[in-house]
């Protein structure tokens, strides 16, 4: 049997704000609430279920979500980042602010969700691509 990722749960400070932030950047369908989750669905049908902290906030590790996008999608996402004056970085350590990377001949950018508990990455080339 093939294994397909169906959904993940991402703990955050404000599930609705984090889900809206991501769906807005991606130009995706609005997030849907169900039970204790607010879900954004990726183009390959993986559910990203945002949940307010289910454990003590100090016990949460910052999450990381990475999306492989086309060059046109990257352009649109990056335009929305700039239009909204969202801080962005070229690296996961947030050391190169205001820059994008060009790893593997592509482009990549990192942003933080409104609660600063989720690092969101958009790349146009998978890591390790020749």
Automatic annotation (TrEMBL):
Positions of the VOC domain: 4-125
Entry-linked InterPro entries: Glyas_Bleomycin-R_OHBP_Dase, VOC_core
Coiled-coil segments: none
Gene3D superfamilies, per database record: 2,3-Dihydroxybiphenyl 1,2-Dioxygenase, domain 1
Protein name: VOC family protein
Source organism (scientific name): Pendulispora rubella
